[in-house]
Amino acid sequence: MSFKKGDTDDAVKFFDQAIQLEQDNNKKADYAYAAAAVLASVKRLSQARTYAQKAISYRDNYGAPYILIANLYATSPNWSDEPALNKCTYFVILDKLARAKAVDPSCADDADRLIATYRRHVPAANELFMLGYKQGDRITVGGWIGESTTIR
């Protein structure tokens, strides 16, 4: 396979062709997830997320892509000059992990383990209060993530 030789672009092209030729959506989801994992391994975070989302579109009860997206976000949580706002990225991460568990109980143990780890990184209420935010407010995480979440 191309990726073993270090050619990420060729590996992704291979997965794209496999997706295009495949009729079974479960297999398409597996190929898209594999492409996401390859891209994640070389830190092409946004592209990896796109392929993980594609995997979800082929199989809506597939938890692994949500976990991958959560881990992608955790590798790059900083988007603001304000440290407390950067910690809000972990709310989005927790959202993805909760979704993984909800759609795919087979990945609940992995999701729970990561939730226990990432939960420790969310901002304290007083940190956000000083910035004018409170529990229940919506916030959009900036940067390449660009997702909204609820402060809790």
Automatic annotation (TrEMBL):
<dbReference type="InterPro" id="IPR011990">
    <property type="entry name" value="TPR-like_helical_dom_sf"/>
</dbReference>
<protein>
    <recommendedName>
        <fullName>Tetratricopeptide repeat protein</fullName>
    </recommendedName>
</protein>
